[in-house]
Amino acid sequence: MNTETKTNNTTGNQSLIERLFAAGAHFGFTKSRRHPTVVPYLFGSKQGTDIFDLEKTSVLLEEAKAALNEAGKAGKTVLFVGSKDEVATIVKQFAEQAEMPYVTNRWIGGMLTNFSEIKRRIARLTDLTEQGEQGELERKYTKKERVVIGRELEKLNFNFGGMKTLERLPQMLLVVDPRHNEIAVQEANDLNIPVVGVTSSDYNLRNLKHPVVVNDALQSSVTLVLEELTAAYTAGKAEYVPPKREDNRRHTRG
Q1: pTM for the complete prediction?
Q2: Topology (CATH level 3) of domain 53-112+169-238
Q3: Which residue, 22, 93, 106, 246, has fewest beta-carbon neighbours within 10 Å?
Q4: Sign of CA dihedral 131, 94, 232, 200
Q5: Cα(166)–Cα(134) distance, rounded to whole angstroms?
Q6: Tens digits of residue pLDDT in 2-19
């Protein structure tokens, strides 16, 4: 029985490794851009380019999947972050699939550490959106005023549109290319919010609770990793049972 389980696990790992290889996930950056913390996860270098050890990458990916699965089971909110042009659309796609908030345009300083102010901006976005949908903007404002409001609404949507459902601080971040989104990672670290980081060879892995070292610029690589991570989270989320509200009514005699 133990032998069969071991064989099945090996087969599953090989399948994942092969898919990672096919997606080009094994290519890092040049040696000159390498961060020392990534060295244990390298297979070697080829023509000056770091090559990841995909066996070790697959282990990191499974650990990150387990963490996200547990987050889903606990009903935790995961904020997806990926503002680099090459991956922004992909990050948004998987965030929406998981029904989670996201930041894919740019990270505004204080999105976590000054969340009370961010909530006010989100509330303003929600209010203007609802007024527009109900036709109140047409009734309440002149054409010139609506132009100004329209510009404000466009800016709010650009900055906070993916966060409209975020009512409180997220309990985990999923960041693609943490070096590009370093402020987001730093704010999360300051607040002890764990970070799952999909990162290449140019970033300090000590800043990430759950690093996944892969090619973070190639769309096929990012897509494969986010498929795995999102599936793990949504599977856990499907098992989440919201806590029952305690009945605070006091029964009195008589």
Answers
A1: 0.88
A2: Rossmann fold (3.40.50)
A3: 246
A4: negative
A5: 23
A6: 444 343 444 455 589 999
